[in-house]
């Protein structure tokens, strides 16, 4: 044991050798740096999630605007993009970077759910997050048709998409957007202890 006298005559006892303290300090700093790196990664991904959520809201607003203008094909395209952005926001919320593609697979969703802590899985299931995947599957096939029509049959998108398709696409996009909002702004920050 090492003893040092401080100003005023008080003594302070140190246990272990000076080198032991240095090694402990270095280990602590390294572990703190790792935690900070993980924390930064999660914060960066949460920032990306919020950006995708904003894009999802904008696309949903545009879909509604196109519906009011009777541009049903454009409303369907915008609603599909809103669904895609909402799902990407959910992925980023749980520290999973989605592929740079316009479609998601069951394996993508499985990988994301494996990153979700056990305690949060029930909450996500109660939100019916799986349905966002179902809607993405359904509407990804409509996107190309809503954009280009049926080229071989020479039928334009404007002649194929009607009010019913546009309203349903917007309804599904709203569902996904609400789920993404709850995950990004409530669940992910709570699960990972992030407040910003």
Overall description:
The protein is mainly α and about 200 residues long. It has one domain (about 45-190): Four Helix Bundle (Hemerythrin (Met), subunit A) (Up-down Bundle), CATH 1.20.120.330. Helices cover about 75% and strands about 5% of the residues. The chain has a two-stranded antiparallel sheet. β1 and β2 (about 10-15) form a beta hairpin. It is elongated.
In CATH, what is the class?
Mainly Alpha
The tally of strands reads: 2
CATH topology call: Four Helix Bundle (Hemerythrin (Met), subunit A)
Unreliable residue runs: 11-18, 27-38
Number of helices: 7
Residues in helix, %: over 70%
CATH homologous superfamily name?
Nucleotidyltransferases  domain 2
Notable traits:
mainly alpha; single chain; 196 residues; Four Helix Bundle (Hemerythrin (Met), subunit A); elongated
Q: How would the blueprint of this fold be written?
A:
Elements: E1 2-5, E2 11-14, H1 18-68, H2 72-93, H3 106-115, H4 118-126, H5 130-148, H6 157-160, H7 163-192
Antiparallel strand pairs: 1-2
Helix pairs in contact: 1-2, 1-7, 2-5, 2-7, 5-7
């Amino acid at each position: 044991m090492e003893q040092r006298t401080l100003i005023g005559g008080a003594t302070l006892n140190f246990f272990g050798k000076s080198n032991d303290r240095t090694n402990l300090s270095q280990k602590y700093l390294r572990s703190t740096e790792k935690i900070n790196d993980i924390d930064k990664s999660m914060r960066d991904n949460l920032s990306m999630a919020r950006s995708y959520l904003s894009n999802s809201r904008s696309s949903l607003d545009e879909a509604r605007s196109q519906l009011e203008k009777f541009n049903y094909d454009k409303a369907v395209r915008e609603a599909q993009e809103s669904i895609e952005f909402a799902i990407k926001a959910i992925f980023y919320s749980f520290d999973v970077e989605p592929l740079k593609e316009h479609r998601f697979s069951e394996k993508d969703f499985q990988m994301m759910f494996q990153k979700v802590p056990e305690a949060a899985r029930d909450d996500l299931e109660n939100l019916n997050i799986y349905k966002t995947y179902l809607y993405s599957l359904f509407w990804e096939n409509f996107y190309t048709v809503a954009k280009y029509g049926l080229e071989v049959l020479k039928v334009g998108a404007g002649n194929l998409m009607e009010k019913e398709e546009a309203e349903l696409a917007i309804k599904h996009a709203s569902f996904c957007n609400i789920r993404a909002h709850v995950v990004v702004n409530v669940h992910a920050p709570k699960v990972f202890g992030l407040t910003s």
